[in-house]
Amino acid sequence: MPHDHGHSHGDDHGHQKCHDHDGVHSHAPEVSRNNERVVLVGFLLTFGFMLAELAGGLLSGSLALIADAGHMFTDSAALALAWAGFRFGRRKGDERRTFGYMRFEILTGFINAVTLILLVGWIAFEAVQRLLNPEPVMAGPMLIIAVLGLVVNAGVFWMLQKGDRDHVNIKGAMVHVMGDLLGSVAAIAAAVAIYFTGWTPIDPILSVLLSAIVLRSAWLLLKASLNVLMEGAPGNVVVSDLREKLVAAVPGLLRVDHVHVWSITSGQPAATMDVQLTDTADPAEVLRGIKSQLASDYGIAHSTIEIDVGQGDVGCSLEQSSAK
Fold it and tell me: Could you tell me which residue ranges the Cation efflux protein transmembrane domain spans (predicted)?
């Protein structure tokens, strides 16, 4: 796009392309040491009890406990990946990775979602096997382990709420732990039912019901993380509406073209676009107006705006590539 390629960070060289943050990054989630500490402690508690729950499930013969232990294992992995995401996310950009390592947290969120979906499939398969070939279940040990699991999961969930819940990693970890809370409740209900009635099919049935609930949350997390990885527009942005709103709201703005909006990481959207101005417009004023509208209406603090100086018939190379 051979338009005007001036670039300004607040200097006075008269450049007409502006790339600015306008101080709005304070509204985006921070990669903080508090988040890192929260998920690390959560990992240690979850992984430690996962071992105890697995042993209890094998001892009692409960699929619900074994399934919940498997879920807690993925929780442990999720929390470990979240910790790594926050740890790497603090690293500054360099010549090869100009945005730094902020997107690492999106990768971990994607991995968390995939592991949850795989786990649900495994639980469903095991549940069918248990229904076809029922096995004895020791209700007493099952109940004790399930109650302890409920206490541990409630503690981890409470701890995660002290972190920044706008982060996709914190969201993903909370989804995992919420699934564990439901798993512990299901295991308690199954243990009580088996103790009083001896009806062991309740164990795999409750495991399947739990898996259905977890599957929905995992699917939503998968879609959200995949949208960021695919450079999709944030959910609050419709590009055609954005164009119309900017032209209507910013005096001197005639046309907006070649708009690209994506998220660098959770809570940090970015945009690039070409704009055409009226003959009497003040370029600096128009740029300030566009950036103000982007920040207030869409939360976009990082934007690069290029002023078209009479070559609007030249297409965007990205759009041409996508059309082939």
Answer: 39-230
The tokens describing 48, both together, are 């430690």
**CATH topology assigned to domain 29-229:** Alpha-lytic protease prodomain-like (1.20.1510)
SS3 269: strand
**pTM score over 0.85:** no
Of the CA atoms within 13 Å of residue 88, those in its CB half-sphere come to 18
Instruction: Provide the token pair at 31.
Output: 């990669």
From residue 29, alpha-carbon distances to 87, 89, 158 in Å are: 14, 11, 19
Domain residue limits, the chain: 29-229, 233-323
Eight-state DSSP code of residue 316: P
- Walk along the chain (324 residues) and give the pLDDT tens digit of each residue: 444 443 333 333 334 444 444 433 333 344 456 667 778 888 888 888 888 888 888 888 877 777 777 777 777 777 777 777 677 666 676 777 777 677 777 887 788 788 878 878 888 888 888 888 877 788 888 888 888 888 888 888 887 777 665 666 677 777 777 777 877 887 888 889 988 988 888 888 887 877 777 787 778 888 888 988 888 888 888 999 999 999 999 999 999 998 999 988 777 889 999 999 998 889 999 999 999 999 999 989 889 999 887 655 555 656 655 444
247-260 CB burial, b ≥16 within 10 A, e <16: eeebebbeebbbbe
DSSP string, 232-259: PPPTT--HHHHHHHHHHHSTTEEEEEEE
Neighbouring C-alpha atoms within 13 Å toward the C-beta of 239: 13
Query: Going by CATH, does the domain composed of 233-323 fall within 3.20.20.190?
Result: no
